[in-house]
Amino acid sequence: MIKKILKGKYEGLWSVRIQPTVNGKRMSITKRAKTKLEAQKLEIELKVKYASYKNGLPSITDESKFLVEYTKYVEKKAQSITATTNRSWRYSLTLLNEYLKKENKSDIQLKDIDQHFFNDFAHWYIKNHPKASVKKSTVIDVTLAHFRAFFTFLLDKAVLTVNPIPRGYLKLFFKQSDFSTGRRWHLFSKDEVDVLRKELLKEYKASTVANSVSKLAVLVDTYLGLRPEELQVLKFDQLVKYEGSYTFKIDNSWSEKDKKPNGSLKDRPKGAYRYCLPIKNNEIIDLIKEFQIKQKKYLNEYGLENTSGYIFLNLHNYRSISSNNQLPVTQGSLNDKLKDVCSKAGIEKQENSVLALYSLRVYLSSLLGNDNRISNMYACQRMGNTIQVFLSTYVKENRESYKQNSQLWSC
Fold first, then answer.
1. What is the DSSP pairing of strand 21-22 with strand 29-33?
2. Residue 217, class by beta-carbon neighbours within 10 Å (0-12 exposed, 13-18 middle, 19+ buried)?
3. Which of 48, 224, 372, 398 has the fewest CB atoms below 10 angstroms from its CB?
4. Considering the domain boundaries, does residue 367 fall inside one?
5. 245-250 and 239-242 as β-strands: parallel, antiparallel, unpaired?
6. d(Cα 24, Cα 264) in Å, to the nearest integer?
7. Cα–Cα dist 117/325, whole Å
8. Is residue 408 part of a domain?
9. Closest by alpha carbon to 111, among 24, 39, 181, 31?
């Protein structure tokens, strides 16, 4: 029924009232419109909408509260993602809660969410978080990606017809000058890596067993380019001979925050494994095998045992070694060791770059990506990335070829 409101707070508006039957019970639904034509359209929409609810109201509709439904979604999502990824989803929920309270919109319904809402949210976040930046894979990028995934879920459920977060949201929400160039890893040259390896080997041989762990770890990583969390939990029994060369067959990674293994490789199901890059230097293989003997002898002296099998077990933490959750060396100590050895070897990081273990990963990825003899598929499999991420994130023009190109150019 459509009727014009003649007095009161809504005088001049048109009232739309329908009485659908849901679960055998008659309901009274009343809405308002500005014009008679809008009221007629609204009446049709309501009748169509509630006709689909005759067997019961759905668990979620466009009139559901955004905060309530997103909270449910995040809690459900936690069952199928890693602890690290879950923290990212939980933080997006924290930010949403904070923003809605500030805007006094905690009860906002899904139907009232549009592109402008998230545009305002994005600018609010950047303005109120001084260290935040606008670029790929930052907090604001990942948070908006989480929200977009939620609304895609609603589209699939036919709750909404339009996703309020468009593709390429960062470029739509921010002007070009708002973007940051982002973190840039120091890109080693071949000569620098050669000098680095020599310095690490020299220091390793001059160190005690307990003080040689980080040095051996960084040295091994100059050949493997692993993610730090993968390097930490390398095991002696994962050293295998594959396709004629020694390499590691890995299937786990370490959570620095939770101080325990994640149970899988990054973005891989439990039990999935990959072979790392082959180590063609037999001296490194011999060092690893010799270190296994040295480590066992060292632990025996204290009545301890390496039950985890970790190569890079933290030998200074006797409490963890004697517990059921043995700890490897920390990522911080590995990065510090790399910086320390680079300093001693006279290696200076490039301007506005970051020197860390990931620099070795970028160096080896760039060697692979720039070698026409090696397929990108092989490189991706050994490094544990998709082709898109491998090429866009890790492969840079190596410094030697860049210098050669500069020398070849003349005009």
1. unpaired
2. buried
3. 372
4. no
5. antiparallel
6. 50
7. 46
8. no
9. 31
SS3 assignment for 273-313: CEECCCECCHHHHHHHHHHHHHHHHHHHHCCCCCCCCECCE
Euclidean distance between CA atoms 98 and 105, whole angstroms: 10
Q: Comparing C-alpha atoms, which of 263, 245, 247 is closest to residue 255?
A: 263
Do 10 and 156 fall within a single domain?
Answer: no
| Same domain assignment for residues 10 and 123 | no
Q: Are residues 319 and 284 located together in one domain of the fold?
A: yes
Q: Does residue 380 belong to any structural domain of this protein?
A: no
Round to whole Å and give the CA distance between 396 and 366.
5
| Total number of domains in the chain | 3
Taking Cα atoms as reference points, which of 119, 99, 114 lies closest to residue 170?
A: 119
Question: Does the predicted model carry a pTM greater than 0.90?
Answer: no
Which CATH number do you get for residue 297?
3.90.15
pLDDT in tens, 292-345: 999 999 999 999 999 999 999 999 999 999 998 999 999 999 999 999 999 999
Residues 6+ apart with CB under 8 A from 51: 20
Give the tens place of pLDDT for each residue, 213-270.
999 999 999 999 999 999 999 999 999 999 999 999 999 999 998 899 999 998 888 8
Q: Which domain holds residue 342?
A: 190-354
| 201 & 305 share domain | yes
Is 398 domain-assigned? Answer: no
